[in-house]
Design goal:
With about 325 residues, the protein is α/β, with parallel strands linked by helices. It contains nine helices and 13 strands. It has three domains: about 70 residues, OB fold (Dihydrolipoamide Acetyltransferase, E2P) (Beta Barrel), CATH 2.40.50; about 140 residues, Rossmann fold (3-Layer(aba) Sandwich), CATH 3.40.50.300; about 70 residues, Orthogonal Bundle (Ribonucleotide Reductase Protein R1, domain 1).
Amino acid sequence: MNEGMVIKSTGSWYQVANERNEIFLCTIRGKIRLDKLKLTNPVTVGDKVQFIIEDEMENIGTIIKIHPRQNYVVRQSPRKKHFLHLIASNVDQAFLVVTVVKPMLKQGFIDRFLLMTEPYHIPVHIIFNKSDLYEPEDLETFYFFEEIYTTIGYFVHLTSAGSDADFDTLKSLMAGKTTLIAGQSGVGKSTLVNRIQPELDLRTSDVSDKTEKGKHTTTFAQMYPLDFGGYIIDTPGIKNLSFSNLEVMDVAHNFVEFFRKSAECRFQNCTHRNEPGCAVKVAVDQNEISVYRYSTYLQILEEIEDQNYWERHHI
């Protein structure tokens, strides 16, 4: 029996690296499921697996077992809304790359990403990239959101492609760890990865001046070893995030500052909307909790409840 780790997922084929860093192209045997959830991809990058070799000459194999996952990052499938899609597993931390300009910042996307990682207590570093393009008002926007997210316990960084110091800081954070890199298209994710590990030479593309949207340059999730120790998992640009797999209280419990404050709510199962004695709503009114975060929270709850019961319980 052979042990390995999935380093690339391309639909029904998976690249698996063994202890000698030999790469095998593998399929899976039978139906492998995760917590009885319907998945578009039962195996993902970062999975530790057992596999058998079918063809030694061509390095072809079959995955027969997935070892228990330390954690995983999962999203609603963008193509099949009743299914979930695994992004990666067994990660030590996540770097969410955003920018204030080109494309414009979508603050709600940050909150939605954190809703994916928070259930597994995955540390998240929010990287505000392309700082060399920021005008003074853009820097004010950065400082405003930096305070919001650092106050509730997340790490925030400001980076520019021309600054060696910025990337030295990121490299020190990544050394010896498995880091998931994620973000929307056009935020400079591939450029950032290339600065951290130039040998990878990932493809990059410019943001459209007309739409301010980036083009997808990463097609499949892939893991790369870092020459200073550790691994990086590069992922395709994420257009949007929905949560048909969650219930209202799942969302309430994973907005971290809401959950902390909810101990003061009159009702134990408070959803922080119209209930009397809601400490979270009072905190929003008193600017102790970000109204921007609260707005995203309400929007996600509305999206979840707009789906009927069957949709939310038969994914």
